Amino acid sequence: MEQTKRVIALGFFDGVHIGHGALLRRVAERAEALGAIPAALTFDQHPRDLILGRQVPLINTPRDRAWIMEHQYGIAQLTVLPFDQAMMDLPWQEFVTQVLVERFQAAWVVAGHDYRFGHRGEGDALRLSQLCAQLGVGCDIIERVELDGRTVSSTHIRTLLEQGEMEQARRFLGHPHILSGPVVHGNQLGRTIGIPTANLVIPPQVLTPAVGVYATRVALPDGTSRLAVTNVGTRPTVEAHGRVTVEPWILDFSGDLYGQEIRVEFYTRLRGERRFDGLEALREEILRNAQQTRRYFACDTESGVGV
Length: 307
What we know:
Radius of gyration: 21 Å
Helix content: 25-40%
Strand order of the largest sheet: 9-8-13-10-11-12
CATH topology of the largest domain: Rossmann fold
Mean pLDDT: 89
Number of strands: 13
Low-confidence stretches: none
Distance between the termini: 36 Å
Shape: elongated
Number of helices: 10
CATH superfamily of the largest domain: HUPs
Number of domains: 2
CATH class of the largest domain: Alpha Beta
CATH architecture of the largest domain: 3-Layer(aba) Sandwich
Structural class: alpha/beta
Strand content: 25-35%
């Protein structure tokens, strides 16, 4: 079997924020110098899900993580391993020798200063670098990245998203927060008031932002993007089921997107969710939100390009 050298970033990379970006940029640099594949290795669920027995809400799906890594940092391969009991029990030395070196032909690895791995988290950055030196594998350990005097972390970004602080989240992420998925059929009520929305399916383990209305961009299957007014919430004016949905109204667009994948990029929260006295009042407010969205993107020079 052909042996292919890889430079591998190690981590969970939820959100792929600017702290992760420091690792990924180093991977790209090392890979170019070595003529190796720039790669990253992560898991299908957060290790704390299994270790602590409670689910950590994810900022992104693995597929979205891969997209951001490729388009933002030039990572060619993202491998998603199952984090199961066998992986949790694997001695840290065997993770390095069997997984990184033998299975993925790591010529160099890059990890954060707080990276832990192996049985009981006994592997750490120091042990990783020492064992790599013995094996002839290069190793870079990246120090913490701070912004506004705060360590950049997925935990803080989750809090910002839960509060609807999209512009702050974008600073820590280094790109707009994204949600992607297939468009499914809704009740098509928006069409009756001239505001057809695309109903997005969000996996249950993925965090949805604070309920409200957002100025967004939507990346379409044909590679173009359009401005959109996106509602995140339970639509209290028209329904009472309480299930949170993500529904962009894509401006200046008409077409059939059912069954196709779209990506929503969140830029700013326009308002909270509230109940209106009838559909006409709702329609007038959404039209006003569309004007706000156009003004926002006309004024925000940083938002001219998506992720």
